From TrEMBL:
InterPro entries: DAGAT. The keyword Membrane applies. CDD domains: LPLAT_MGAT-like. Pathway: Lipid metabolism; Glycerolipid metabolism; triacylglycerol biosynthesis. It is found in: Cytoplasm, Perinuclear region; Endoplasmic reticulum membrane; Lipid droplet. The chain crosses the membrane at residues 40-64. This is Acyltransferase. Its EC number is 2.3.1.-. It is a multi-pass membrane protein. Pfam families: DAGAT (PF03982). It catalyses: 1,2-di-(9Z-octadecenoyl)-sn-glycerol + hexadecanoyl-CoA = 1,2-di-(9Z)-octadecenoyl-3-hexadecanoyl-sn-glycerol + CoA; 2-(9Z-octadecenoyl)-glycerol + hexadecanoyl-CoA = 1-hexadecanoyl-2-(9Z-octadecenoyl)-sn-glycerol + CoA; 1,2-di-(9Z-octadecenoyl)-sn-glycerol + (9Z)-octadecenoyl-CoA = 1,2,3-tri-(9Z-octadecenoyl)-glycerol + CoA; 2-(9Z-octadecenoyl)-glycerol + (9Z)-octadecenoyl-CoA = 1,2-di-(9Z-octadecenoyl)-sn-glycerol + CoA.
């Protein structure tokens, strides 16, 4: 506010070029403030979508059923039954939604970048292993479910499908919102369909570490849950889909959370939720809505750089043995570590930093 008053005073006192310069300063100051607010709003809407949209839409639909507008809810429920299996068949993406201006503000809030290291052939299908999960997988969403970082320009002819919990697609309205961005359920039916009945040029992005990995994410720590995660390798072998390691530098920096030690009551509760519901509740915080010095649900404005590594050619084996799975899993782990080591110093990490593979 003081800066605005000073600029305005300069306009009153100055003449000629001084007046023009002061007006330009005032214009750019106001523009930057507006853009910052739009960035905050864009991120806040996604955080609320992630946390409460599914439950909120379900409750609203139930309420409408009890009002004079019950016909609207009944029609939507009839449509929901008819459309129930669409998420398992590649979904219903919308280029219009993926290109919303709000996603560019979302990108610039952190900011988020997508780095391409190799070309991808449109005659092949791919499974991207995304690491680490972080609290909300913000880099995965921005890079692969929107066009904010130019994924379609960087990888022409490749259709990205970000895979997430199948339970999200049982929630009214939320399911349609997710599908519009090219998000699909992370289950075998959905992945089999995309990799076998949807042609070539498909890339399924799987956040391999899942809920278990999110429980250990904290600023300053680069660790992935991968040693015993081999299902995605088996899927790649069954379909002959190439594996692509992806590492997002800064994903763990945007939220702080309470880490419960193994054997503690808190970790016991988290594992029970993970086992029976599919996600693990985390106690986390970011910055406040009006101040970066207070606590809140907004993530911290820390840069996230997602590096897409070199594809690993995978043969098609209808019934891969455990030996086959272990062999290509080890190649994948080595490729991920090499990717991390090659780019870590470029994105703010010391040369001595080591990727911890659990």
């Amino acid at each position: 506010m003081k800066t605005i008053i000073a600029a305005y005073s300069g306009v009153l006192r100055g003449t000629g070029s001084n007046v023009l310069s002061a007006l330009q300063d005032l214009f750019w100051l106001l523009k930057s403030k507006v853009e910052k607010q739009l960035q905050i709003i864009s991120v806040l809407q996604w955080v609320l979508t992630f946390l409460i949209m599914g439950i909120a839409c379900t409750l609203i639909l139930m309420y409408i059923l009890c009002t004079d507008c019950w016909v609207i809810a009944a029609l939507y429920l009839a449509w929901l039954v008819f459309d129930w299996n669409t998420p398992k068949k590649g979904g219903r993406r919308s280029q219009w939604v993926r290109n919303w201006a709000i996603w560019r503000y979302f990108r610039d809030y952190f900011p988020i970048r997508l780095v391409k290291t190799h070309n991808l052939l449109t005659t092949r299908n791919y499974i991207f292993g995304y690491h680490p999960h972080g609290i909300m997988g913000l880099g995965a969403f921005c890079n692969f479910s929107t066009e904010a970082t130019g994924v379609s320009q960087k990888f022409p002819g490749i259709r990205p499908y970000l895979a997430t919990l199948a339970g999200n697609f049982r929630m009214p309205i939320l399911r349609d919102y997710l599908m519009s961005g090219g998000i699909c359920p992370v289950n075998r039916d959905s992945i089999d369909y995309i990799l076998s009945k949807n042609g070539s040029g498909n890339a399924i992005i799987i956040v391999v570490g899942g809920a278990a990995e999110s429980l250990n994410c904290t600023p300053g720590k680069n660790s992935v849950t991968l040693k015993n995660r081999k299902g995605f390798v088996k899927l790649a072998l069954r379909h002959g889909a190439d594996l692509v390691p992806v590492y997002s530098f800064g994903e763990n920096e945007v939220y702080k959370q309470v880490i419960f030690e193994e054997g503690s009551w808190g970790r016991w509760v988290q594992k029970k939720f993970q086992k029976h519901i599919g996600f693990a509740p985390c106690i986390f915080h970011g910055r406040g809505l009006f101040s970066s010095n207070s606590w809140g649900l907004l993530p911290y404005s820390k840069p996230i750089t997602t590096v897409v590594g070199e594809p690993i050619t995978i043969p098609k084996i209808d019934n891969p043995s455990q030996k086959d799975v272990d062999f290509y899993h080890s190649i994948y782990v080595d490729s991920l570590i090499k990717l991390f080591d090659k780019y870590k110093s470029k994105f703010g990490l010391p040369e001595t930093e080591v990727l911890e593979v659990n």
